[in-house]
Amino acid sequence: MKGFILYSTYRIIRDKAYVALFGRLENGENFVTFNLFRPYFFIRKKDLKEALELEEFEYKNVKLKNFLDEPVVKVILDLPGEVPKLRKILIDEGIKTYEADMRFTRRFLIDKQITSTVDIDGDYDSEENIDRVYKDPELKACDCDVKLKVMSVDIETDPTATDLYCIGIKCGKYKKVLLNHKKKIKHCENFSDEEDVLERFMEVVKEEDPDVIVGWNFINFDIKFIFDKCKEYKIPFNLGRDNSVSKTRFSENFMIKSKVDVVGRMVLDGIDFLKDNFVKLKDYKLETVGQHYVGQGKKAEIVDWDNLEKDFKKNPTKLVEYNIQDVELVLDILDKSELLDLTVKRSKLTGMRLNEVGGSVAPLDYLYLTKLRGRGYVGITSLYSEKMDKVKGAYVMEGKVGIYDEIICLDFKSLYSSVIRTFNLDPLAFSKKEVKTPFGTKFAKKEGVLPEILDTLWQVREGMRKRKDETGRYAVKTTMNSFWGALANTSSRYFSMDLANSITGNARFVIQEAIKFVQAKKYEVIYSDTDSMYVVAKKDASKEGKKLEKDVNDYFKKLVKQKFKRESFLELEFEKVYTKFLMPKLRGGTKGAKKRYAGLVKGKLEVVGMEAVRGDWTGLARRFQMELLVKVFKGEKLDTWIRKFVADFKKGKFDDELVYRKGLRKPLDEYRVNPPHVKAARKVKGFNSAVVEYIITEDGPECTSHIKHKLDYKHYLDKQIKPIANTVLELLGKDFDELLQGQKTLF
């Protein structure tokens, strides 16, 4: 029977360790498998005698070696807890260990080459809350699609978050509000006190048996509130598929992620789905995300929040309606965004559980170690190393300032990944100095492990493209792109400054070589950024873009084969044509800006790096810049429009768009300087949020929740409108201040 693994752990039974895998089967039943497994790691064969003098242990000779081709032996223990103890003894005496940092369950899955889908063959029994309990079944890797049960949960409390009013739940066909009130309302179960509500909530979780429990700002608020109330009433906090109390880690420091460990299930925050899959919005409030994906928000207006306590006691109908809408909205977002589906696909690719896919080090580790063992090698034990210097980044060309017609955009497809494949950049291959790359580093002739992994993923991605599985393609793309970050991460067992710099260095060679080739064809390149370049068309932009794509790719095929004796996987794509394009000056300077430009593509405005798309500028700045750019690209007059915009602004028509949003990177008391967002937050007693929303008043920055002074309109005119206007006006030989005084007319 095939199934999806949701949760992995282990159990000690009669002094033996068993890996326990919980999940959902194709037939809809839940399962757990128990497999006997012994932890192990490796040491060099030449260190065996000295190691045995320090501590007795079981060992086995194996046909494996380290990256320096030194033979290793396998050290075998009985319990996972014995590994770190022996590892420390050996390391303290200068004996190198290999793969001695592996999590026990992950080691088991890597050995079985199982990611998140598994074929289970064996006898089974049933237990309370578990449909199938397998003991020592045969497990094999497989591919299957399993429909996971998702439960959305949202609580409502009094304004001080002291009293529990209700818990909204939706899971499949089940839709209920557990209501701490006697009034009979549709979709509600009524209870006389908080304790009964909580006990019923625990029962519902067991009865509905979800695989994923999700909400919004869920762990830090809803789950923490429920956990604290369970503690108060001495109710076992058990949301899992066994009888153990669910473990929690709530952090008041927003820099440290709170976690809930529920055996057999995943408890996830909807916000993490967005962040783990690199979705960027102006903020991650349920209202904002709902509008973005579903076209509707929280409908908070149906509740009179100023009189919440009074209204709830009298008639809780409106709060119940609001509660139901919230739990449904979260499920609608997951459905429309396909973020859960994307997370599942990334889990199936990398072997990470659903709450782990956002990382980069562990996914690469899983895939790399799986392939490495097939090559007859073992990886080092991952020990944190300090990065002395920064990895040198990508090549970014200084932009040529101006407003242009017909710009061709050419882009290298997954440049870092294709560079790794083309020049065989790989941790294992790096230890063999045989072939010199353009950057000057040397690698083995034999295909490396990482290029093999990327080649496999590339084929998977192409298969998904043919099936028009866009979610799957994105899952593969994000997985592939994350590997570069893992190689440059000091916590990775594959970290190497030389290797990381070789990747970026060879990527710089590729983009610079492509620019030279295009320039040799008598084209003007006005800008280049990491993996893309922007070229002024001569006559027919689309035709020329396709021709340049073919010519550059043919050039690299010949160059790589002749000079480096390798196959080129570099693939330049003709991406689009900007009918209008603006490259601004560097703020306060004369040189062209980097990573800042705007243009029109098929009549639609695209903005990169400028204030309109930056989260630390206001809505006012976004509105002004977007409208300004469209008028410039359409050749419309600006003087009258700018004066009217400023006049409307001064009349207060845009007051609701003056909010700044800025994230805190550390607790307030750790800031030695006092930037505006920190200053605003420090004015609020007990401020505890990762994001500060504030406006500038005549008394300086103030949080939107604690405004005490009048708006400082001059600040917004000088710091938001004026610099954005001059970005464009200076290209036309004009000035914002003179325009407002009526001394010059544009166009």
Short description:
This protein has 747 residues and is an alpha+beta fold.
Properties at a glance:
single chain, alpha+beta, Palm domain of DNA polymerase, 747 residues, DNA Polymerase, Chain A, domain 1, Nucleotidyltransferase, domain 5
Fold and architecture overview:
- It is a single chain.
- The protein is an alpha+beta fold and 747 residues long.
- It folds into four domains: 2-141, DNA Polymerase, Chain A, domain 1 (2-Layer Sandwich); 150-350, Nucleotidyltransferase, domain 5, CATH 3.30.420.10; 384-583, Alpha-Beta Complex (Palm domain of DNA polymerase), CATH 3.90.1600.10; 615-740, Topoisomerase I, Chain A, domain 4.
- A hairpin with a 2-residue loop joins strand 9 and strand 10.
- Helix 11 packs across helix 14 (470-487), helix 12 (415-423) crosses helix 13 and helix 12 (415-423) crosses helix 15.
- 40% of the residues are buried.
What's the helix and strand layout?
Elements (H helix, E strand, L loop, with lengths): L1 E12 L2 E10 L4 E7 L3 E5 L3 H7 L3 E8 L5 E6 L5 H11 L4 E2 L5 H9 L4 E5 L2 E4 L2 E6 L2 E4 L8 E8 L6 E8 L2 E6 L8 E3 L3 H15 L3 E4 L2 H16 L13 E3 L9 E3 L4 E4 H7 L9 H8 L14 H7 L2 H21 L1 H12 L10 H14 L21 E2 L4 E11 L2 H9 L11 E2 L5 E2 L5 H18 L3 H18 L9 H24 L3 E6 L2 E5 L4 H24 L7 E12 L13 E5 L2 E5 L10 H15 L5 H12 L9 E4 L12 H7 L8 E7 L2 E4 L9 H17 L6 H5 L7
Parallel strand pairs: 3-10, 12-16, 14-15, 16-19
Antiparallel strand pairs: 1-2, 1-8, 2-3, 4-6, 4-7, 5-6, 8-11, 9-10, 12-13, 13-14, 17-18, 20-24, 21-25, 21-26, 22-23, 24-25, 26-27, 27-28, 29-30, 30-31
